[in-house]
Every structure is written in C-alpha cells, then in structure tokens.
C-alpha cells in the first residue's frame, strides 16, 4: 500500500512538472541541482541520484547500476567506426581522469560526438570494471542519460585546448589554469596545506584569531603599506595590514597561544619570483615562550605539513612534474633543524668569499645559497640577528647589539620563517620605537599590554606561498596563488 501511494505521488509530480514547465523535468532539474531524478522513456522513476565524485569512484571501484558524474571533458575519441565514444572526464577531485564510454544507442548521440575539450557535462550511466574501470552509457531504458551545460563551440579560441602547456604559458590565464593538471594540483595542494595548518594548531591547543585587514598601525615599522582612501572614512589614516602580529600579541596576553591565517599586503617595489604584493601569512604567537620554544614549534609545524602533504596525490604528481620533491622532503623530515647564530653564518659566508668582507647586518639570497650548500638539504634556523634594521618589537640581548630573533631558510626557496621573542618591557619598547622615529601615540593600545599583565611571549610568521613553493618544487611564487598581485599587475 505504501509503495502504491509513493508511486502515485511520484507520477503526479512528474506529470505536474512536465505540464507546467513544458520541459523534461530531468533537464530542468539538471540546471539547478547536483541531484537527479532519472526516468525511463515511459516516465517511470528509475532512481534518485546524488552526484558521485570521480575521487569516490577510484577509492571504491565497485560496479554500480546507475551513478551520476558532473564535470568537464578532457579529451574525446571514437571507436568501432564511430559507433562508440571514449571520453576522458574530470571533476578535479582527483588527478586521474574517468573514462566514459558512450554508445550510439543513446538518444542525441551526435551531441556527445561534437563535444570539445573543456565542455561541461553530466553523465548518468553504469559503472563497470570490465574490461576497465569506466562509466558506460548504453540504454536510455536503463536510465542512461547525459546533459550538456556548456559546449565550447570554437575550440581554437580555448586558450588551454592543447594537452602539453608550459607553466609560463598558463600563467597568462589565471582564470583557466586550474583546468590543467598542474594548475589543479596547485589549487588542491594549497587547500590541503591550509586544512593541515588549522588541524595542527587545533591539536596543539592554539586559539585561531581573525585579525583585522584594515589597521591604523604599521606592524613592521617599515612604511611599506597600502593606504586606504578616502582617508577620512574612519576618522583616522588607515592601511591594509602588513601583518596581524600586533593584534595576536595583545590577545595572546589574554587567551594564551594564538595563530591567524589570512591575507597580508606589502607595497614593496619587488618584481621577483619570490615576492607578491598580496599574499597569505600564517602568524603564530606563543605564550610564556622563549626563542628555542618558538623555533621548535616552527620546525615541528613545517615537518608535520611536509609529511602529510607527501602522501597526497597532488604532491606525487608535482614530484613527477618538478622532480625530486618527495625525496627532498623526506630528507628534511629525517634531519633536525640546524640552529646557528648570525655571527657564525657570517664566518661561513666570509670563508666562502675567500675572506673578503661581506654584508654585516643582513643575509642576502646569495648568502642563503652558500649556507644551504654548506649544511646540506636541511632547515637552517639563523638566530640573533643584529639590532640594526630589525623591527621595533623584537627583544634585544643584554648588549643591545643583537636580538632574540630567527629566520628559517630552506633549500630552493630560501627564507620561509621569520620570528622572535617580543619586547615586554614598556620603557625599552617605547625607546626602540622612538629610535625608529615611529608615532608612539598610534600604538597606545598595543603598549597597554606591556603595563596590564604582560607575559613573556614570541612568535613567527610563515608566508603560505613560500612554504607551498618549498613543498611543491614550484620555482615561481606567482604559480602557487590563484590570482597573483604584484607591482604593475592586478588582473581579474
């Protein structure tokens, strides 16, 4: 009785949709949802389908009578004198394409035959493992159907129609490069890295903070900020944040260990393969911590994400694409970070240049290469940088000549981490700000935390794009962010 009632209700719904929308309800539903009602030619409901992802098919390749997939055509070829079509199909949930076999017994077979690379389509068919894993469309009576959302009529105008394209070429098409294996792998690897980051710090009992993007302060004291206009909207000059650190610091003095992950902005005149004007930064503040504690957290985090990322299909593909990525990451995970002072690094660099005088307050990109060659394929934590040209918030040693600071440099990409202990003494902090000719009044609320229950704390920042370059072997930072922003370039 229940079955008969259900059948009558479904039949009524089908007839109602057919009458009032004057269209196949299947087609109308296809345009608005990922769930499909599949009917045979007599109007009998065969199945209510949830969309199946290609990743799920490869994870569980069990034959199924009827499934639906939705995505894009990668390539198409004919066989059996044109009566059978084989389509390489992707929905970007996996590197692997799913083969779809369409027989000419399916109505409107010619529409499938005219599909081009990049066309978006849904298929309903039978999942088979004989002779190979594929989705078969053979009989409309069995509910086998397709629906074309968008066909690229002039494939010659499709910028990424070819199979083999250089990274330099697809960089010119940021809105389409995710359709390529390389571009898709980067997008998924980036997503995986961000997910792993939140997982790591949640497990470490850190509190996630969303810090403001609009700010009145310069967290670095370097003046490389984008000013927001109109200037009187907030009643005071405001800027895009170069860092969320100062907000993290004040909250760390109330809630303990914190971190933030979000966009930051630098108005630097740097047009290199390692710099962006808008990039994502992981910033971490550790309560009741000293320099060694902070370095340990940074090292542990990098090794954690490297170990997890190595197991993903995205990194495995990029390892084949770029070479030796997994081997390099494996060596890094199995080696402890090298902790070496700035002065010791200067001696190593000086010896490399046959005793000639080298820079005394900074380590250049060439200097980084010297150190990496000297220590091998390891993370190198360089500590105690000179006080000159260091940010105002860094705690100084008793001599005042150096800071409790560190950078971590890595093979291939150089610096990926910068951090320090923070100065917690009110008078010393104000003095350091005045030395850099900063407007102390603008930082009053930040300075309050040095009066109202301050604690020893410190932290670090990691550019997500730099870290992703290291994890993927990609050479240009513009290839690891979907829509890069740099000087004289802000497309899309």
TrEMBL record:
<keyword id="KW-0547">Nucleotide-binding</keyword>
<keyword id="KW-0648">Protein biosynthesis</keyword>
<keyword id="KW-0436">Ligase</keyword>
<dbReference type="GO" id="GO:0005524">
    <property type="term" value="F:ATP binding"/>
</dbReference>
<dbReference type="Pfam" id="PF00152">
    <property type="entry name" value="tRNA-synt_2"/>
</dbReference>
<dbReference type="GO" id="GO:0005739">
    <property type="term" value="C:mitochondrion"/>
</dbReference>
<dbReference type="InterPro" id="IPR006195">
    <property type="entry name" value="aa-tRNA-synth_II"/>
</dbReference>
<feature type="domain" description="Aminoacyl-transfer RNA synthetases class-II family profile">
    <location>
        <begin position="190"/>
        <end position="482"/>
    </location>
</feature>
<keyword id="KW-0067">ATP-binding</keyword>
<dbReference type="InterPro" id="IPR012340">
    <property type="entry name" value="NA-bd_OB-fold"/>
</dbReference>
<dbReference type="GO" id="GO:0006421">
    <property type="term" value="P:asparaginyl-tRNA aminoacylation"/>
</dbReference>
<keyword id="KW-0030">Aminoacyl-tRNA synthetase</keyword>
<dbReference type="InterPro" id="IPR045864">
    <property type="entry name" value="aa-tRNA-synth_II/BPL/LPL"/>
</dbReference>
<protein>
    <recommendedName>
        <fullName>asparagine--tRNA ligase</fullName>
        <ecNumber>6.1.1.22</ecNumber>
    </recommendedName>
</protein>
<dbReference type="InterPro" id="IPR004522">
    <property type="entry name" value="Asn-tRNA-ligase"/>
</dbReference>
<dbReference type="GO" id="GO:0004816">
    <property type="term" value="F:asparagine-tRNA ligase activity"/>
</dbReference>
<dbReference type="InterPro" id="IPR002312">
    <property type="entry name" value="Asp/Asn-tRNA-synth_IIb"/>
</dbReference>
<comment type="similarity">
    <text>Belongs to the class-II aminoacyl-tRNA synthetase family.</text>
</comment>
<dbReference type="InterPro" id="IPR004364">
    <property type="entry name" value="Aa-tRNA-synt_II"/>
</dbReference>
């Amino acid at each position: 009785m229940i079955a008969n009632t259900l059948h009558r209700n479904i039949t009524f719904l089908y007839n109602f949709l057919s009458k009032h929308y004057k269209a196949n309800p299947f087609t109308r539903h296809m345009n608005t949802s990922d769930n499909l009602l599949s009917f045979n030619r007599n109007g009998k409901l065969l199945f209510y389908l949830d969309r199946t992802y290609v990743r799920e098919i490869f994870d569980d390749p069990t034959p199924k009578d009827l499934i639906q997939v939705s995505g894009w055509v990668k390539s198409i070829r004919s066989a059996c004198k044109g009566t059978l079509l084989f389509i390489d199909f992707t929905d970007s949930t996996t590197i692997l394409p799913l083969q779809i076999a369409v027989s000419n017994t399916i109505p409107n077979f010619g529409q499938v035959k005219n599909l081009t690379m990049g066309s978006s389509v849904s298929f309903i068919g039978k999942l088979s493992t004989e002779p190979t894993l594929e989705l078969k469309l053979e009989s409309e009576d069995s509910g086998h159907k397709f629906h074309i959302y968008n066909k690229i009529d002039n494939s010659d105008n499709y910028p990424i129609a070819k199979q083999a394209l250089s990274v330099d070429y697809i960089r010119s098409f940021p809105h389409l490069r995710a359709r390529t294996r390389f571009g898709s792998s980067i997008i998924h690897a980036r997503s995986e890295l961000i997910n792993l980051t939140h997982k790591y710090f949640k497990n470490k009992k850190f509190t996630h903070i969303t810090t403001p993007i609009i700010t009145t302060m310069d967290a670095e004291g370097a003046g490389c900020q984008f000013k927001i206009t109109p200037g009187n909207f907030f009643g005071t000059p405001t800027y895009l944040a170069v860092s969320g650190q100062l907000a993290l610091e004040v909250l760390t003095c109330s809630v303990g260990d914190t971190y933030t992950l979000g966009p930051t902005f630098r108005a630097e005149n740097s047009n290199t393969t390692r710099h962006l004007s808008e990039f994502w930064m992981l910033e971490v503040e550790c309560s009741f911590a000293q320099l060694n504690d902070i370095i340990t957290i940074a090292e542990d985090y990098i090794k954690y994400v490297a170990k997890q990322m190595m197991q993903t299909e995205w990194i495995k593909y990029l390892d084949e694409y770029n070479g030796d990525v997994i081997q390099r990451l494996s060596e890094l995970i199995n080696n402890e970070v090298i902790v070496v002072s700035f002065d010791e690094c200067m001696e190593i660099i000086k010896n490399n240049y046959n005793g000639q005088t080298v820079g005394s307050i900074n380590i250049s990109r060439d200097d980084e290469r010297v150190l990496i060659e000297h220590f091998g394929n390891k993370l190198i934590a360089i500590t105690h940088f000179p006080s000159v040209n260091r940010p105002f918030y860094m705690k100084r040693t008793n001599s005042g000549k150096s800071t409790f600071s560190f950078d971590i440099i890595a093979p291939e990409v150089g610096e990926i981490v910068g951090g320090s202990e923070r100065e917690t003494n009110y008078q010393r902090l104000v003095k350091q700000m005045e030395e850099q000719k900063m407007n102390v009044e603008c930082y009053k609320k930040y300075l309050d935390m040095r009066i109202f229950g301050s604690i020893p704390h410190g932290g670090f920042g990691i550019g997500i794009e730099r870290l992703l370059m290291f994890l993927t072997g990609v050479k240009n930072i513009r290839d690891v962010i979907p829509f890069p922003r740099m000087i004289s370039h802000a497309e899309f």
